[in-house]
Amino acid sequence: MKIAEMVPSERPRERLMQKGVHALSTTELLAVLLGSGSKERSVLSLSSHILSHFSSIQKLLEASISELTEIPGIGPAKALQLKAAFGLAMRYSDQKRRAVVGNDAIYEWISSDFFAAKEEKLVGICLDVHRRAFHKEVLSHGNLSEVLVHPREVFHFAIKNKAHSLIVAHNHPSGDATPSKPDLAITKQLSSCGQLLGIPLVDHLIIGRNTYFAISSLWNGCDLLK
């Protein structure tokens, strides 16, 4: 459907103005940036085609101007407009990443991943050489009393994302962040593997109700198994 044929209140620009960015799909947000379509495609169709062409938002953000202009309907002016918007988004992302340093900031960053969770799950957090968190991912789900995880999954995640070091975090649905014996055992196992692979396990955070416990505190704040 062309935007002109849509009910005014359902048009992307109007919805963005009235409800904010979270009310729009990625296709609609890109359509707002584009402003108009081409002779062959409506702006929503062109937006959908662009997202399909690059297969992921990351690839789209990293696309060069020449790669953007290879798409019919994207001329130099639109490509420059998109690159400027993407550049601002990536700079914001870099600034936000630099702010995620230390357990308190990391807890704030990941706490929403565990909101209202009724089962345990493990999140891996990649750190760069300066121990700034730059990527997180849910690695496994468990039942109410345990997380099922194998070190190979954890370190495959770390290697794939080129982590210099690693933090893992998992929740206790009971709300009590006190580490259990299995928590300590898997921490030692992951730490040993990290030493062998050259990807240190910096910490294991136990997420409780509005709080967390850092297992590294049991080792006086040092890397584990010193």
Shape: elongated
Number of domains: 2
Q: The CATH topology of the largest domain is what?
A: Cytidine Deaminase, domain 2
Count of helical stretches: 9
Mean pLDDT: 87
CATH-level-4 superfamily name of the largest domain: Cytidine Deaminase, domain 2
Q: What's the total number of strands? A: 5
Structural class: alpha+beta
Q: What CATH first level of the largest domain would be assigned?
A: Alpha Beta
* Spans where pLDDT lies below 50 across 5 or more residues: none
* CATH 2nd-level architecture of the largest domain: 3-Layer(aba) Sandwich
Q: Radius of gyration, rounded? A: 22 Å
Strand arrangement, major sheet:
2-1-3-4-5
Helix content range of the residues, please?
A: 40-55%
Quick one: biggest sheet?
5 strands, mixed
Short descriptors:
5 strands, 226 residues, elongated, alpha+beta, 9 helices, Cytidine Deaminase, domain 2, 44% helix, single chain, DNA polymerase, domain 1, 2 domains
